[in-house]
Automatic annotation (TrEMBL):
Main location: cytoplasm
Keyword NADP: yes
Localization per Swiss-Prot or TrEMBL: Cytoplasm
Positions contributing to sn-glycerol 3-phosphate binding: 108, 136, 191, 244, 254-256
Record Pfam families: NAD_Gly3P_dh_C, NAD_Gly3P_dh_N
Family: Belongs to the NAD-dependent glycerol-3-phosphate dehydrogenase family.
Active site, renumbered: 191
Function text: Catalyzes the reduction of the glycolytic intermediate dihydroxyacetone phosphate (DHAP) to sn-glycerol 3-phosphate (G3P), the key precursor for phospholipid synthesis.
Domain Glycerol-3-phosphate dehydrogenase NAD-dependent C-terminal, first and last residues per copy: 180-320
Pathway info: Membrane lipid metabolism; glycerophospholipid metabolism
Superkingdom in the source lineage: Bacteria
The protein, known as: Glycerol-3-phosphate dehydrogenase [NAD(P)+]
Length: 332
């Protein structure tokens, strides 16, 4: 267990929408905060305009927020790092980074090829570092605006999770501490995939009943994987699982949902992705999660259907037909 106590300084690594929103939240919670952007020109532009024009346009960034592309400067004196780099790039960023203080990973996904969850990527890069996960139903724009939201800080390190949750919480952003980082990570990663499925059935005009069935059965397959990987089913029923499924499968602002919607309307994946400058984690996560599940003998039919659609083996109608024609079984 770490002897981590107070958080005077926070370094946020990754200046996408969520990193920027979390930096604003850390500032609000009273921490001296630095935001690390990988591109020096972008850091310069953000500093000059006090705005993240690429990923969170229109949201003012206060003068107290230090913005830098220098990792050493961002981490100087930091008591806590928030790692907010997309899952597929996390290992690459960590490989080039100086030593980290205790850290929370806020990326949601499964790494292509290695099939690692974000905390596993961090543990491989920094063995023994006190670490946890920050996850929940959180659209960056709303958190940046200070609208009410909740999430969990999950770690096996009790001191880290309790101190980080206490120090980053404000009246507008309520963090619960949790002792099941595996369950939290599986929920956060998998909801991206189920949100693509939910968007696809809505886009294809298959109705609200179909979406409700998908979300509920999606929850069941997420819980199976969480348990197989050493997490708990009850975690999946909390903020980082069900909470995030509710948000992303119904909220039009979800990038995963909107990608599924466009696929359901008959658009091609390549064309949809070409129009985006932001990450849609479910695309790389679906096949990676499916492979990870197969490795531990867990069946994930909805995730398999999403991977089939993303990889062009099936269209949305065919995937839904296949799901509906699976052998009948007991619900649990
Ligand atoms: N946006 C949200 O509302 C939100 C909320 C909760 C969690 N998340 C998670 O946070 C993570 C980051 O998402 P985001 O929405 O902040 O990103 P974003 O889509 O706003 O921005 C993309 C980010 O990816 C980075 N990037 C692109 N190519 C890279 C590379 N080759 N190497 C390193 N970094 C690269 C960019 O610098 C930028 O920071 C994701 O895992 C996402 O699921 C996002
Ligand atoms: O826009 P999405 O689908 O990446 O979802 C963002 C957050 O993960 C919601 O909690």
């Amino acid at each position: 267990m770490s002897s981590f106590r107070s958080i005077g300084r926070v370094a946020v690594i990754g200046a996408g929408a969520w990193g920027t929103a979390l930096a604003l939240q850390a500032l609000r919670a009273g921490a001296a905060t630095a935001l690390w952007a990988r591109d020096p020109d972008r850091a310069l532009a953000m500093r000059a305009a006090r705005e993240n024009a690429a990923h969170l346009p229109g949201q003012p960034l206060p003068a107290e927020l230090r913005i830098t592309a220098d990792a050493g400067e961002a981490l100087e004196g930091a008591d806590l790092a928030l790692l907010v780099v997309p899952c597929q790039h996390l290992a690459g960023v960590l490989a080039a980074f100086p030593p980290l203080p205790p850290s929370l990973v806020a990326a949601k996904g499964v790494e292509h090829g290695t099939l690692r969850l974000p905390l596993e990527i961090l543990a491989d890069a920094r063995p023994g570092l006190p670490a946890g996960v920050l996850s929940g139903p959180n659209f960056a724009r709303e958190v940046a605006q200070g609208l009410p939201a909740a999430a969990v800080v999950a770690s096996t390190d009790e001191t880290l999770r309790q101190d980080a949750a206490a120090c980053l919480s404000t009246a507008g952003f309520r963090l619960y501490d949790h002792d099941d980082p595996v369950g939290a990570e599986v929920g956060g990663a998998a909801k991206n995939v189920i949100a693509i499925a939910a968007g696809a059935v809505i886009g294809a005009g298959l109705g609200e009943n179909a979406r409700a069935a998908l979300v509920t059965r999606g929850l069941a397959e997420i819980a199976r994987l969480a348990v197989a990987l050493g997490g708990r089913a009850e975690t999946v029923a909390g903020l980082s699982g069900l909470g995030d499924l509710l948000l992303t499968c119904t909220g039009g602002s979800s990038r995963n949902f909107s990608l599924g919607l466009a696929l359901g309307q008959g658009r091609q994946l390549g064309a949809i992705l070409a129009e985006r400058n932001s990450v849609t984690e479910g695309v790389a996560t679906a096949p990676a999660m499916l492979a990870r599940a197969a490795a531990v003998g867990v069946e994930m039919p909805i995730t398999a259907a999403v991977a089939d659609v993303l990889e062009g083996r099936m269209d949305v109608a065919g995937a839904v037909e296949q799901l509906m024609n699976r052998p009948l079984r007991q619900e649990v």
